[in-house]
Amino acid sequence: MASKEDTESEAQAEAPEAPEAPEAPDNPQQVCTPDSSEFEVSADRLEQLLKSMEVLLLDVEQLRGHCSHHATELMHAAVDLKQQQEELKEGYSELSREMQEIMDSVEDLFSTKSAFEAKETQAQKLNRQL
């Protein structure tokens, strides 16, 4: 029979080893501190990030200015288009009235022509009778 120690040894040998968690230092003042080169790299990265953010902010301001300018232009164009639309409506109304007057005049001319032709036909009949 295997002894208790042999069984524990076999169990430990078969079980995968878990990574050991870092132990807390005995002295709190011995906390792992990065060396100065790590601070320089972090400072460089932060500086690059800061510059990138400044560039992005400038781009945003520039785009805002362009958008504001285009919005103003579009508003002026919309006002101009509304004015042109009103002018076209007025012009259409005026042309429509003129067209109706022309149609009335043409109708009157056809009525006059018909009346004239009727009188002429009547005059020709009377001439034949004489």
TrEMBL record:
It comes from Zoarces viviparus. Keywords: Coiled coil. The keyword Coiled coil applies. It comes from the Eukaryota. This is Uncharacterized protein. Residues 27-36 have a biased composition (Polar residues). Residues 1-39 are annotated as: Disordered. Residues 43-105 form a coiled coil. The keyword Coiled coil applies.
